[in-house]
Amino acid sequence: MKKLVLLMLFLGSIQLNAQTVLGKWKTIDDATGQPKSIIEIYEKDGKIYGKIVELLNPAKRNSTCLKCTGEDKNKPILGLTIIKGLSKDDDEYNGGKILDPESGTLYKCIIKLNGKDKLEVRGYVGFSLIGRSQTWLRVK
């Protein structure tokens, strides 16, 4: 009986771990539909952040954030933190920002799991109705 309880707890913990935004995610280019980058989402001081850990277009691997402002200006895009300071709110994370390295624009951000392997990412200005959404795919 104890073995069965331990097995159920173990399997439950695996399921909980699969239902997290933490990990690596593949972004898809809106215009071409091609994979663009790999973002690693991590937790730091109780907040959620995401940084670019791989650029999938070899021609862009040495790009810098020319249009960014502040501390991100002229930083290499590879390694750049683009999701900043999200907090968990029920089944979504919000209250932080997301950076578009191509335009240098910082948007408000909401992320939410859609199943265990899809992440809905929404960047917006003002109200969440005025913005753009992407679906990122979990990297296994």
From TrEMBL:
Domain DUF2147 positions: 23-138
Record's keyword terms, sorted: Signal
Transmembrane segments: none
InterPro entries with a match to the protein in the record: DUF2147
Secretion signal, residue range per the UniProt entry: 1-18
Pfam families linked: DUF2147
Protein name in UniProt: DUF2147 domain-containing protein
Lineage summary: Bacteria, Pseudomonadati, Bacteroidota, Flavobacteriia, Flavobacteriales
